[in-house]
Amino acid sequence: MMRKFVMALAAGAALVFGAGLAEAHGPSRQKVIQEVTLNATPDEVWAVIGKFDDLSWYPRAKSVEIEPGAEVKPGEQRTVTWDNGEQTTEQLTKWNPEGHTYSYRTITDNIKALAVTNYSGIIAVKDEGGKAKVEWTGAFYRGFPNNDPPPELNDEAAIATVTAAHQMGLDALVEKFGKAN
């Protein structure tokens, strides 16, 4: 009888603690990849978007602050002020100007600027028959890290937010250079 009681108690504890562990699983990392081929050479496009301290090509960026005289290299940080007055601080993680690519990550999340957390991005310009193919990859978590997020901070909203943000930049490049046929 005592053995059955102990086994039942152990089984009950496993159910309770097991259920708690299942619910404790947080959000999954999301990823968005968008691209456009422009009517310009990779060098021409890189000259515009390949500057970590210059986001003048991106419509939402109002200003970029970087340490004066700083050398562009991994570890360098920029503070971006967005069109709504909000700011984020981003860090350059990989820098390859010869390969026309750089990676960066947000080190200060601000869901009022971009409704996601732990965002990291890669911007790459590739040669496609003499035309510039721009590929922008973003990886991130939703804006609400716990279970049961509000609709504006759930996974679907995060994907839509990053997709729209990237598309705005790609559309600005199309406006500047034209889309390749």
TrEMBL record:
<dbReference type="InterPro" id="IPR019587">
    <property type="entry name" value="Polyketide_cyclase/dehydratase"/>
</dbReference>
<feature type="signal peptide">
    <location>
        <begin position="1"/>
        <end position="24"/>
    </location>
</feature>
<keyword id="KW-0732">Signal</keyword>
<dbReference type="Pfam" id="PF10604">
    <property type="entry name" value="Polyketide_cyc2"/>
</dbReference>
<dbReference type="InterPro" id="IPR023393">
    <property type="entry name" value="START-like_dom_sf"/>
</dbReference>
<protein>
    <recommendedName>
        <fullName>MxaD family protein</fullName>
    </recommendedName>
</protein>
